[in-house]
């Protein structure tokens, strides 16, 4: 048997996750998630999971190697703290998508709500639409690509993450500044878009990152803290 | 005429004002609250005599073990002593200090706890029971380490700074610390005060569900709060699914926090325990959801008093560092060279700890032998346990958890009101109607 199906209208998330943590096949279909929480959380192998419907909080949480595709929308904390692998969602994602994720690729084909990429630590996130306010807050490392617009407070208190935005950007967060797009940035952006399966002209994007003014405490910056 | 110091503008206050005027920054330091607050010293035990029957010291058993987190987890922690080691990060502490804590705790069968900086192999390797903290920063948080943990502690706050995030100043961000936290070396590193992917108790319930799912319902999930609105916080933590609630009073330590925060935010441990116990009792879950109390535990008497007031276990941080050698007179000259003194050193943020504990400096860290440090900590933990047993036997208790508020009286009106035990020699508990 190459594939296994879990219908969450007749079985539990617990049964699904227990199987995914000790997989007997390589690919899984999940039906009727109906907004269930923690669907496909804690995968630590290269299994592929296709979820048909909307998921609740923390879908694919802490994913380490799995390829999870959600054919629908996701609630808070999609792919939070992902270590590696790929998570793709065909619809929209709610708050804190990709929060604190250390690695892997998160593709949101629709838009993402507030705090997308908050405290990201190395993940690559590509958003086909727009992101809400306070995205990439305290973003430490990794790349966030936004093909639409970004809300206010983008990159507030950002560390070393790199942000690419194609549309409008609201008021930038503290210590976040627009930076020059050099050839290496256009090249990595093209790679990220290709990995996400999205087609855009890289020259339409602008790059944002840290001015590194808040890296050392000083009372002269008290208005920024 | 005799010189007269102002009670409002004393010499310490004058120093503070002039230091602020000179430097333009607030004072950041380690340790916990240094001000005097009502504490366990203000309580006494009523040993058995005619109306209670004592146990024979050294002959009759007084057990000390405790099971933590048996409400939902397949593998709850079974500790031999109720004195655990509180969360302290690698980064704040040297790798040697973390290893020593693990060694000492394991030797006596208790747990130690990671901190805001991930899990080190030294610590995991030497800790029989390791609690992995789940903090807002999620520094070093990863799936593999989460599954290596014996319990997960979701940290909402700590007693030294309820409502505050963390900070680790650049002088302590070595290459290894920076790599574990995914940050550039040498910068002043801030940790968030709010979790990035949940807000409020309803979300926390789903977060705890996710953590259980990820770890296949094997591990107890603790929720740690700094002591403030403890009665409500404990009720909400339990509603969110906590198996264990950790309440850290304002005397609890920190590696680096603003002095103004340490001294002015939060409530004393003594005031927090009865609130927590009441919340658990009203839910019908006292002793079922376990309560761990920390903040100013120094002796077996403190352990016994915390347990009599309703704790199932306690956690020590500052005292554990002192047991390893922190503030030892052995380093008196070096403390003085740093502008401090043995017994008063609190510049844990500075990274120049002569005892090699709160530092990342390779030469200073090498001063602490993890094996010897572990031995010292184990000795200290045994003494705490023996002292608590001595008191429990005198109160006629065959297990430390059988200690109860009725075994206690208070020396001051303030302590009586906070601890909700009678003022010694009276039946008066301020704020509680007397039934005498």
**Number of helical stretches of at least 4 residues of chain B:** 15
Low-confidence stretches of chain A: none
Q: How would you characterize the largest beta sheet of chain A?
A: 11 strands, mixed
Percent strand of chain A equals 25-35%
What is the topology, as strand order, of the major beta sheet of chain B? 5-15-14-12-11-8-7-6
Mean pLDDT of chain A: 96
Q: Kindly provide the name of the CATH class of chain A.
A: Mainly Beta
How many structural domains in the coordinates of chain A? 1
Number of strands of chain B: 16
How many H/I helical runs of chain A? 2
Terminus-to-terminus distance of chain A: 56 Å
Give the largest chain-chain interface (CB within 8 Å): A-B, 44 and 34 residues
Strand line-up across the major sheet of chain A: 1-2-3-4-5-6-7-8-9-11-10
**CATH overall fold name of chain A:** Pectate Lyase C-like
Distance between the termini of chain B: 53 Å
Summarize the biggest pleated sheet of chain B: 8 strands, parallel
CATH class of chain B: Alpha Beta
Rounded to an integer in angstroms, the radius of gyration calculated over CA atoms of chain A is: 18 Å
Shape category of chain A: elongated
For this structure, what is the CATH homologous superfamily of chain A?
Answer: Glutamate synthase, alpha subunit, C-terminal domain
Low-confidence stretches of chain B: none
């Amino acid at each position: 048997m190459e594939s296994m199906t879990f219908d969450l209208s007749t079985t539990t998330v617990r049964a699904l996750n227990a199987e995914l943590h000790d997989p007997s096949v390589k690919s899984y279909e999940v039906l009727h998630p109906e907004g269930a929480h923690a669907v496909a959380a804690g995968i630590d192998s290269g299994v592929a999971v296709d979820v048909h419907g909307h998921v609740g909080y923390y879908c694919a949480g802490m994913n380490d190697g799995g390829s999870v595709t959600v054919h629908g929308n996701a609630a808070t904390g999609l792919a939070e703290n992902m270590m590696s692998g790929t998570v793709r969602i065909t619809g929209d994602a709610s708050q804190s998508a990709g929060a604190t994720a250390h690695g892997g690729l998160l593709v949101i084909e629709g838009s993402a709500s507030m705090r997308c990429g908050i405290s990201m630590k190395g993940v690559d996130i590509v958003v086909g639409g727009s992101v809400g306010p306070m995205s990439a807050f305290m973003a430490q490392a990794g790349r966030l690509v936004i093909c639409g617009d970004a809300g206010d407070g983008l990159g507030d208190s950002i560390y070393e993450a790199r942000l690419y935005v194609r549309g409008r950007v609201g008021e930038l967060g503290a210590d976040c500044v627009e930076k020059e797009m050099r050839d290496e940035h256009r090249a990595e952006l093209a790679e990220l878009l290709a990995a996400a399966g999205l087609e855009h002209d890289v020259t339409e994007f602008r790059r944002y990152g840290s001015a590194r003014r808040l890296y050392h405490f000083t009372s002269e910056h008290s208005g920024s803290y | 005429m005799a010189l007269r110091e102002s009670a409002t503008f004393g010499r310490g206050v004058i120093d503070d004002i002039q230091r602020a005027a000179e430097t333009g920054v607030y004072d950041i330091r380690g340790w916990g609250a240094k001000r005097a607050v009502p504490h366990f010293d203000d309580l006494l035990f009523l040993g058995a005599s005619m109306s209670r029957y004592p146990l024979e010291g050294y002959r009759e058993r007084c057990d000390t073990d405790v099971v933590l987190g048996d409400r939902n987890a397949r593998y709850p922690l079974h500790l031999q002593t109720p004195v655990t080691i509180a969360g302290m990060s690698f980064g704040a502490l040297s790798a040697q200090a973390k290893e020593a804590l693990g060694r000492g705790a394991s030797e006596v069968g208790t747990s130690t706890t990671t901190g805001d900086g991930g899990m080190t192999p030294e610590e995991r390797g030497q800790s029989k029971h390791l609690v992995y903290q789940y903090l807002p920063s999620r520094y070093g948080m990863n799936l593999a380490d989460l599954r290596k943990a014996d319990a997960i502690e979701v940290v909402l706050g700590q007693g030294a700074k309820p409502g505050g995030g963390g900070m680790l100043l650049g002088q302590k961000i070595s290459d290894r610390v920076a790599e574990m936290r995914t940050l550039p070396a040498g910068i002043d590193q801030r940790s968030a005060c709010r979790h990035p992917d949940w807000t409020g108790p309803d979300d926390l319930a789903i977060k705890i569900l996710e953590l259980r799912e990820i770890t296949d319902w094997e591990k107890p999930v603790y929720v740690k709060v700094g002591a403030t609105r403890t009665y409500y916080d404990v009720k909400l933590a339990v509603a969110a699914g906590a198996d264990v609630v950790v309440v850290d009073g304002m005397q609890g330590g920190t590696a680096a926090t603003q002095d103004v925060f340490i001294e002015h935010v939060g409530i004393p441990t003594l005031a927090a325990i009865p609130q927590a116990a009441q919340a658990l009792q009203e839910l019908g879950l006292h002793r079922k959801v376990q309560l761990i109390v920390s903040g100013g535990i120094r002796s077996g008497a403190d352990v016994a008093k915390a347990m009599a007031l309703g704790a199932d276990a306690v956690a020590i941080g500052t005292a554990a560092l002192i047991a390893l050698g922190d503030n030892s007179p052995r380093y008196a000259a070096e403390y003085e060279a740093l502008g401090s003194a043995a017994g008063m050193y609190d510049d844990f943020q500075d990274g120049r700890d002569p005892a090699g504990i709160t530092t990342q400096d390779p030469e200073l860290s090498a001063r602490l032998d993890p094996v010897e440090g572990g031995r010292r900590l184990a000795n200290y933990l045994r003494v705490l346990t023996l002292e608590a047993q001595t008191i429990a036997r005198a109160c006629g208790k065959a297990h430390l958890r059988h200690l109860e508020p009725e075994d206690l009286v208070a020396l001051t009106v303030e302590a009586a009101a906070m601890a909700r035990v009678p003022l010694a020699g009276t039946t008066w508990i301020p704020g509680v109607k007397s039934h005498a």
